[in-house]
Design goal:
Elements: H1 7-39, E1 44-48, H2 49-55, H3 57-97, H4 100-153, E2 158-162, H5 177-189
Parallel strand pairs: 1-2
Helix pairs in contact: 2-5, 3-4
């Protein structure tokens, strides 16, 4: 006995199987997303980097240290600027009454002071940038190491860092910034052994 399958019946069976397979895959994916966002939501958290860095005492101390250096650098620039102004004032007096040699010496002195000022300002810009980067990098390294430990200790699978609105939306219960700042500051307060 031979079974004959008509082409239409064969196509209908394949379409039904394909439809059933598509439904099964859709249900599986839906279940997977439901599982990830329902059961593992507690394992995904974030910190607000602006709040974290402004509340972390080590970063506040680093900024204070940097600002003190900036004040000293500005004071030095002001001193050199005043030296140039004083030299120009002397030159103007010398230009009226001085000899050619005195005028040339005064002019050379002004040129040298202006050169020193310019070189110092360039060095300050470069040093300022490098110093700010060094201080910030030291703090960020400490924060990153802490976040890794904190995440493992609290069973988090993922800690996101929100910065300047790069997370469009997250439930407030996922924000652990205050807890992290509190723990970081506790560690910062303990002197290194």
């Amino acid at each position: 006995m031979q079974i004959t399958v008509t082409p239409i019946r064969f196509i209908t069976m394949n379409v039904n199987r394909l439809l059933l397979l598509t439904i099964l895959i859709g249900v599986s994916v839906t279940f997977l997303f439901f599982y990830i966002f329902s059961f593992s939501r507690r394992n995904i958290v974030y910190v607000d980097s602006n709040k974290l860095l402004s509340g972390y005492k080590s970063m506040v101390a680093a900024r204070t240290e940097f600002e003190a250096k900036q004040v000293a650098w500005k004071s030095n620039v002001d001193t050199l600027t005043n030296d140039v102004k004083t030299a120009i004032a002397k030159y103007e007096k010398t230009a009226m009454n001085g000899s050619v040699k005195e005028k040339q010496l005064a002019k050379d002195f002004i040129t040298e002071k202006q050169k020193q000022l310019y070189e110092y300002q360039n060095a300050i810009r470069q040093n300022s940038s490098q110093e700010e980067q060094r201080l910030t990098q030291n703090v960020l390294s400490t924060v990153n190491i802490f976040l890794e430990r904190y995440g493992k200790k609290n069973g988090y699978k993922l800690i996101l860092v929100a910065s300047n609105g790069n997370i469009a939306y997250a439930d407030e219960s996922m924000d652990i910034t205050e807890k992290v700042v509190e723990e970081l500051n506790k560690e910062y307060a303990v002197p290194a052994k």
